[in-house]
Amino acid sequence: MNLLEIKNLKMDFGKNAEAARAIDGVSIGIGEGETVCLVGESGCGKTVTALSIARLVPTPPAHYVDGEILLNGKDVLKMSQRELLQIRGGVVSYVFQEPGAALNPVFRVGNQIMESLKLHRPEKATKDEVIRLLKLVGIPAPESRIRNYPFEMSGGMQQRVMIAMALASEPKLLVADEPTTALDVTIQAQILELLSELKQRLGMAILLITHNLGIVGDMADRVAVMYAGQVVELAPARELLRRPLHPYTKALMASVPKLHGGAERLSAIPGNVPRIGNFPTGCRFAPRCPIAKPECSDKNPELVQVEPGRFVRCPFWKS
Amino acid sequence: MTGGVILIILYTIALFAGFIAPYRYDHNDTDNSFHPPNWPRLHQFHLVVARYGSDNDFHYQAVANDTKPLRFFVHGDNFTLFGFIPCSIHLFGTGDDQYPTYLFGADQYGRDIFTRLLYGSQISLSIGIVGIVLSFVFGLMIGGISGYFSGATDTVIMRFCELIMSIPALYLIISLRNAFPPDMSSAKVYAMIIIILSFIGWASMARVIRGMTLSLREQQYVLAARSIGQSHLRVIVRHILPNTFSYVIVAATLSVPYYILGEVVLSFLGVGIQEPFASWGNMLTEAQDPNFLQRYPWLLAPGAAIFVTVLAFNFLGDGLRDAADTKSL
Hints:
- The complex is a heterodimer of chains A (about 325) and B (about 325).
- Chain A is about 30% helix and about 25% strand.
- Chain A has about 325 residues and is an alpha/beta fold.
- Chain A has two domains: about 1-90 and about 170-240, 3-Layer(aba) Sandwich (Rossmann fold), CATH 3.40.50; about 100-170, no CATH class.
- In chain A, the strands form two sheets. Chain A has an eight-stranded mixed beta sheet, with helices on both faces.
- The mean pLDDT of chain A is about 80.
- Chain B is α+β, with helices and mostly antiparallel strands.
- Chain B folds into two domains: about 1-115, no CATH class; about 120-325, MetI-like fold, CATH 1.10.3720.
- The mean pLDDT of chain B is about 80.
- The interface between A and B is medium-sized, with 33 and 18 residues.
């Protein structure tokens, strides 16, 4: 049994006539200790999918139409408020995009880590444990750092504190929602290195959300590419990077600047991401797809397994 | 910061009122009705207090060469310091009722206005603080809940706040006062005044806090706090409300005068603190009569005390606002 199994998740924003489907039939599984990357453009539903794992999307305006999210075999969508408070932090922890905004500006960082400890490991809610956690995430001189306010730290340090906070409850799954987007490149590398090292040491699974394909190769075991609320390709990371099958994945990879590529013009995907609630009929990528055929606009293709472990939502993946 | 210093002095005096005041608040001497202020004079390196003689129409005249030295730590009326330490030593006095030390004169019943001013300050100054704490705790909690949950909860709570705010405060105070029995003990009246004033005061606070919460709840640290499994209530209390404190402290300071004045109004109208207990409001009741005012202007002393206190709170509030507001220089 997988640690996390999202099955055919469908979620709307708004109700009845105004309902806009933000997630449309997403299915992803994460095994124990596995790293899965969720890749896609802004607004494709990555973050909402990730937040759904602990039911952190406010309902209303969101509401779940169909599907289940099995965490340790229990459906998160059917959990009581009390159970939810248990799994948040207890089973799944989050690291967010902007560490500066995700730490409460009026509390010392030590206290914020302590909060997490008090909730999930009250017997370990001591100053020593906070210091140990800060050491674990590589903060120098943690004894004095616990008395710092978030604004007294650099972005990279703040993100390390966030990670320490997430780890304090010893989760089985760490969801990192673009953890490096707000940081500069050298710090990005350090944070990612820290994440993979912690994963090795603590044996937790990671769901990494990113729109940076460069990260995928370093970190991921498997990759799910999302477009317009749907998974369009799901594959082991290496194979996906070596041989993308879905035209969207191909286009995405073509728009990554190459280090040794020379000076040719950087290719971009033409057109815009369709707005939620206003998706084209048929294949959602068809209007922007270089290999689109007339029949693509008629029916949205299913996500089908084309090779062992490889799923693609495009009948023309061979071309 | 002048305001702060003045307030610290005022509150310290209020705390030691029984000791600093030369008499007890209900020490009356009908021979000395409307006795004029009687400051000690310096005479041959001694502070001395003069004796006053009077005719039947309360015209007082200092008796020449009849003085008594002012003494410090003098034995006088019994009182309890801080409400539980029995004590009878006063900071100054003559120890002789023939030579009264009425710094601000005496009232109709020959009670020392300075003494009653100090005892009154205990009530008037504490009512502001207690009232603020009570109404702000309510305002913060209700505003926080309203803003955090938004939607229907928000609508209901906010309409209720507007209902309370739309009633003219004075009528509400008086009608609420009439809902309680008229012959209540002073302690009960004190509690009642605070409750009534807080009942009116929380609504405007709740509305501002609700607005701030609406914006604060979208902050990522709220999501982060939720993501480690903190309950709604805990998120409101621990993460949202502390972020409003820089505003709240300023607003609280600036609204203390409202409570002090509220007590003054109630007592002035005769529905607040009852005689013989002193409060600045019921002391001013005597100053209603223009005849008295003309002849005995020292009856207005509580008015001056109110003026200084309210001004000090406003100065302090302004100072705090400048200190808390990092945007303007």
